[in-house]
Specification:
Blueprint lengths: L7 E4 L6 E5 L10 H7 L4 E5 L15 H14 L5 E6 L1 H12 L4 E7 L11 H8 L9 H7 L7 H7 L3 E4 L2 E4 L3 H12 L14 E6 L7 H4 L6 E6 L6 H4 L1 H12 L1
Parallel strand pairs: 2-3, 2-4, 4-5, 5-8, 8-9
Antiparallel strand pairs: 1-3, 6-7
Helix pairs in contact: 2-3, 4-7
Length: 256
């Protein structure tokens, strides 16, 4: 299994306990900077760019075993015998698979609005819409945003996705490889078969948005029997953005 060296941001006092934050699909470490800055008051925080995201290397293979292997290499490289891990969405699945396979490396685990299951939604329409963006005709982000409005009607989500559009040598280009994303997207909505793996019995918190339907207690209990599920009101899948104060409070109280 070929690993890549993950790019990361580091915040807080190196003498404090390590906390690793893992972002979701199409996101990067920058989306978690505000959360990381607050948690850095008590933790030595590492915010990673997972493979094919942010400024980390691109690789044609993107699934949870390989991303968990990247995380293991990161911890070994930075001499982290153990760490607490917080993962959102895709990053939450990376965190869960890592915990199931390397439980001795996890102090405490927080999984944000995702469950250890395979989902049925599809990213094809979304990724094809991004691939259809006529980059040579785009002179500013507003044009790109308007072009995508029909296929991606939610403004905040369009703006989130367009964080991956960068200006390079006077022209716009994608920071991410959309062909890899399109080909590997089925791996992202899936979760590896956990039937033959021992449950993770460590301290675990699942945080879910009340307006999201990604997490059900019945989907958690088999692989994470000692987990606590907390639902945050007036929030959907992006609960750390929609209810940041409540989110931080729940995380800090769990880590006490």
């Amino acid at each position: 299994m070929e690993t890549v060296a993950l790019v990361f941001e580091e915040l807080g006092n190196p003498a404090d306990a390590p906390l690793i934050i893992l972002h979701g699909f199409f996101a990067s470490s920058r989306n978690w900077r505000q959360v990381a800055e607050k948690l850095a008051a008590n933790f030595h925080v590492y915010v990673l760019d997972l493979r094919n995201h942010g400024t980390s290397p691109h690789h044609p293979v993107m699934d949870y075993p390989t991303m968990a292997a990247d995380l293991l290499q990161f911890m070994d490289t930075h001499h982290l015998t153990t760490a607490s891990v917080l993962g959102h969405s895709m990053g939450g699945k990376v965190a869960m698979w890592f915990a199931l396979n390397h439980p001795e490396r996890i102090d405490q685990l927080i999984v944000v609005d995702i469950a250890p299951i395979s989902y049925t939604h599809c990213f094809n329409h979304l990724i094809k819409a991004l691939k259809a963006l006529p980059l040579s005709k785009i002179s500013n982000r507003k044009q790109a945003e308007l072009f995508l409005a029909t296929d991606i009607p939610e403004l905040s989500y369009r703006q989130f996705l367009l964080q991956n559009l960068i200006l390079k040598d006077g022209a716009y280009d994608w920071r991410v490889d959309l062909d890899i994303f399109l080909f590997m997207a089925p791996n992202i909505i899936a979760f590896p078969d956990g039937e033959k793996i021992a449950p993770y019995t460590g301290k675990t918190l699942f945080l879910a948005g009340a307006q999201s339907d990604f997490v059900k207690a019945s989907d958690i209990n088999t692989l994470f029997p000692n987990a606590t599920l907390t639902v945050i009101g007036n929030a959907g899948h992006w609960l750390h953005v929609q209810q940041p104060d409540i989110f931080i409070k729940q995380v800090e109280e769990f880590f006490v």
